[in-house]
Amino acid sequence: MSTVNLAALLLLGLLLVMPQQSMQASLIDPIAEIERSNCKIAHLRLGLVFTSDNNERALQDSGLYSPDSDDSSVDIAGRRFHSGTLNGSSIVYVKTGSHSVNMATTLQILLVRFSIHGVIYFGNAGSLDKKTMVPGDVSVPQAVAFTGVWNWKKFGSEKGKLVFGDFNYPENGENLLGTVQYEKINMFSPSEAPKEVFWLPITKSWYNAATEALKDMKLRKCYSDECLPGKPKVVFGSKSSTSDFYVRNKAYGDFLNDNFDAKTADTASASVALTSLSNEKLFVVFQVH
After folding, report:
1. Does domain 3-148+186-288 have CATH number 2.30.29.30?
2. How would DSSP label each residue in 145-179?
3. Which stretch is the leader sequence (predicted)?
4. Would you say the C-alpha torsion 8, 13, 18, 24 has a positive or negative sign?
């Protein structure tokens, strides 16, 4: 399936139910915007974040995006932020690059330097449950977690959840790699004391809006004479695993599915969630498989 066409359809579907901005779209100087925000006259926009060139190209080629001007981008800390409109909604979009640290850094810059009222993340993920999701499907998860925060136990100490010896082949047994305990993360926010969390919930109102907008969407099986083996679909309400390593090992994918009920794995979604929640911003996640 063409990621370009699929991305455009999903973004359009979501933005149809998002609040429309009545102010004229214009490129906002990031420094001046901060000053104006103190006076409550800043221009609120949606923030769109992507990790790959393909997803950025999807937006540009959709025919739905219009830049504010011929010079509607600004470079901050090596990232390029683009200002424009999508389906009548004012947006700022940025390509973050892969992995959680790049996502968190770029998204924090976006939220601090621009007046963003909510975040839409669009990225790729791998399916951990082939019965639920196959290549070409799209998932809208309801919760995400960092599953790469490990306390790697000393060999012979109290066992953690992940026991490497359970994966010895052809028979289980002891393994010098020992065991791993999965850790919670610290979440900070302006209005609450820091707390430890594992699952990070997607903003309920935006998840519900995405579900309503996309529940009847029919995804095309073929694009440009290339066809998927099955009919693609949109899957709602799953849980997703994020870590700094790509999960292509079936045994470990099965472990995440069996122990955490995680249906997908990627390197960015939990960073979107944590950064958005820490800044008390609305957000939603789309994953293409």
Report:
1. no
2. EE---EEEPPTTSS--SEEGGGG-SSS----TT-E
3. 1-25
4. positive
